[in-house]
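Worked example 3 (structure in, sequence out).
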């Protein structure tokens, strides 16, 4: 157990690196997005939500391509992508229902 913790501590993506703390800080985007799912649909900004979708897709690719691969960063951006796509779906449904598109 101690050897495993020491290996994680000293790894290239461990807590002594930005490869660890960057993804940890990015969980704030996911938490904020989850909190926004409780807000009224008419408050969703389609531009910001779309930008967040693109941002997370780009950083998912970066996290996978960087050496060493940063699965923590990939996971946080995959989570954010899901939250933002849900928000975008809520916005589209709201726009379609408010324009009586059938």
């Amino acid at each position: 157990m101690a050897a495993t913790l020491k290996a994680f501590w000293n790894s290239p993506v461990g807590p002594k690196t930005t490869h660890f703390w960057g993804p940890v800080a990015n969980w704030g985007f996911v938490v904020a997005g989850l909190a926004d799912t409780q807000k009224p649909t008419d408050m969703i900004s389609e531009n910001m939500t779309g930008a967040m979708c693109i941002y997370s897709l780009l950083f998912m690719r970066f996290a996978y391509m960087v050496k060493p691969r940063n699965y923590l960063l990939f996971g946080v951006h995959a989570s954010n992508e899901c939250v933002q796509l849900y928000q975008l779906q809520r916005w589209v449904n709201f726009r379609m229902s408010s324009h009586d598109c059938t």
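Notes: The mean pLDDT is 92. The two ends are 59 Å apart (CA to CA).
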